[in-house]
C-alpha cells in the first residue's frame, strides 16, 4: 500500500502566490460587501484556500483588511495635476484627475471598500482618514499657498469630490453614475473652482 499524500480538493498549500491570491480575493470581497459583510470563509473560498491559511498569513480579518486596503496611488498624480493648471482651471482639472484616479481598477477597488467599510468599522475609517489627510488635503493645502483659510477650502473641495465619487461609484445614482466625464467636468468643475483661493 502506497503512502501517497492526498491534499484536499481545491485547497492549496501556503506560499507567496497563495498569499497574493488571498489578497486579491479579500479586496474583491471587501469591495463588494464592506468590512462587516465580508467573512474569512468567503474570502478563503474565493481564493480557493483553507480558511486556516488566512489566519496563518494575516492573523485575523482586521489585519487582512489593513494589508489588502493599501491604496496604490502616487500622490503626485493629484498634486501635479492641480499645480500645473492655470489658476482659473484648477476646478476642472481636479474633477478630471479625480475621475481618472477612480477609473483605475487598482485604486478604485480599495477606495470602494474603504468607503463602504468606513461607516461601520473603525480601522476602515482610520485608513480613509489617513488617505484623505495625507494624500489629498495636505498636498492641496500646499497648492493653495498662504490663504488663511486654505485648509478649510481644501477640505470643502475634497468633501465635494468624495461625495461625487460615493454617488457615482458606490451608490450608483443615475444619471450621475452613467454620465460622461465631460458632462461631470462641465457641471462640477465650476463648483470645485469656487473653493480655490483668489490669486
CATH class of the largest domain, anyone? Mainly Alpha
Q: In this structure, how is the largest beta sheet organized?
A: none
Total number of domains: 2
- At CATH's second level, what is the architecture of the largest domain? Orthogonal Bundle
Q: Kindly identify the CATH topology of the largest domain.
A: Tetracycline Repressor, domain 2
Helix-strand string: HHHHHHHHHH
In whole angstroms, the N-to-C terminal distance is 85 Å
Number of DSSP strands?
0
What is the mean predicted local confidence, pLDDT? 83
Q: Tally the helices: what do you get?
A: 10
Helix % is over 70%
Keywords: DNA-binding
GO molecular function, one term: transcription cis-regulatory region binding
InterPro entries: Homeodomain-like_sf, HTH-type_TetR-like_transc_reg, HTH_TetR, Tet_transcr_reg_TetR-rel_C_sf, TetR_C_16
Organism: Phytoactinopolyspora alkaliphila
Describe this structure in words.
The chain has 199 residues and is mostly helical. The protein has two domains: 53 residues, Orthogonal Bundle (Arc Repressor Mutant, subunit A); 119 residues, Tetracycline Repressor, domain 2 (Orthogonal Bundle). The protein is elongated, with a radius of gyration of 21 Å.
Amino acid at each position: 500500500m502506497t503512502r501517497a499524500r492526498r491534499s484536499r480538493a481545491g485547497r492549496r498549500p501556503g506560499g507567496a502566490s497563495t498569499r497574493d491570491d488571498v489578497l486579491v480575493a479579500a479586496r474583491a470581497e471587501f469591495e463588494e460587501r464592506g468590512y462587516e459583510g465580508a467573512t474569512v470563509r468567503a474570502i478563503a473560498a474565493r481564493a480557493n484556500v483553507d480558511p486556516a491559511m488566512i489566519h496563518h498569513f494575516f492573523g485575523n480579518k482586521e489585519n487582512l483588511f489593513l494589508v489588502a486596503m493599501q491604496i496604490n496611488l502616487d500622490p503626485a498624480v493629484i498634486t501635479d495635476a492641480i499645480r500645473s493648471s492655470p489658476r482659473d482651471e484648477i476646478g476642472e482639472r481636479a474633477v478630471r484627475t479625480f475621475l481618472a484616479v477612480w477609473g483605475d481598477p487598482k485604486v478604485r477597488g480599495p477606495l470602494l471598500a474603504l468607503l463602504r467599510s468606513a461607516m461601520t468599522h473603525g480601522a476602515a475609517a482610520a485608513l480613509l482618514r489617513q488617505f484623505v489627510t495625507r494624500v489629498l488635503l495636505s498636498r492641496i493645502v500646499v497648492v493653495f499657498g498662504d490663504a488663511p483659510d486654505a485648509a478649510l477650502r481644501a477640505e470643502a473641495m475634497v468633501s465635494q469630490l468624495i461625495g461625487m465619487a460615493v454617488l457615482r461609484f458606490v451608490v450608483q445614482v443615475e444619471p450621475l453614475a452613467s454620465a460622461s466625464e465631460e458632462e461631470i467636468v462641465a457641471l462640477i468643475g465650476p463648483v470645485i473652482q469656487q473653493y480655490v483661493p483668489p490669486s
